[in-house]
Amino acid sequence: MIAWNYASASLFCFWWFQPDIQHVSIQHTPWWLIFALGIILPSIFLCLAKSLEYAGIVRTELAQRLSVVLSLLAAYFFFHEQFNTLKLWGLGLGISAVLLVLFGQINSSANHQSRKAIFALLSVWCGYAAVDILLKYTSSLGLQFALTLNLIFITAFILSISYLLLQKTQKWQFKSTIAGLILGILNFSNIALYVKAHILLKDSPAIVFASMNILVVLLGILSGVILYKEKLKWPTILGILLGISGVVCLASAMA
């Protein structure tokens, strides 16, 4: 599903943005960015799967969305956005929430399992931040962003298929291919609209980083509790409250 999702994402990207492939400049194409995201995008799905297995959907969803803390640090240090008091409060609350969720995991399982859960959560936290930051950079490429995004999806597809072929234990199923192609439509829509938001708000990357996370945190946690019957322990509950408060502070600071 992960592999085939990038096949349909690349086709939809070509159809939607219609990149100018006739005037491709090998010299000026950001190949480092294409290969970096081509590797990170499918890899983060694998990290997400491990995090779901070891830490559960609630903690995974919170770690994923609180990657906004790292993204906002990048907005300040790399994209030179100015931060006010509310933004700083949001950062502090977000970092506290991540620490609570990560180390609260120690109380809920055996030591070995806890280390796996913490490592998986950290990989999700850092991985999604890297995707956010690199996609923000992609949005700054002007007219070349459409071609770059298309090449990123194609690279991710080729690398994913290569990985599966090397595994040799993967059973190819038609239903997985169809499900992956449908997933690609959602994945493309998410990334394309995210990049377009950065283009429209090019001077305020932090508002894009923050605004996309509030409802996703809430819906992810609700799905874990309601659909998957996950039980919340007090460190996770406190982490959730701090995390949501932090993202609300960040959004309010830029309203």
TrEMBL record:
The keyword Glycoprotein does not apply. Its main location: membrane. It is found in: Membrane. One of its GO terms (cellular component) is membrane. The chain crosses the membrane at residues 31-50, 62-80, 86-106, 118-137, 143-166, 178-195, 207-228, 235-254. It comes from the Bacteria. It is a multi-pass membrane protein. Residues 3-102, 117-250 form the EamA domain. It holds the Pfam family EamA. Belongs to the EamA transporter family. This is EamA domain-containing protein. It comes from Acinetobacter pittii (strain PHEA-2).
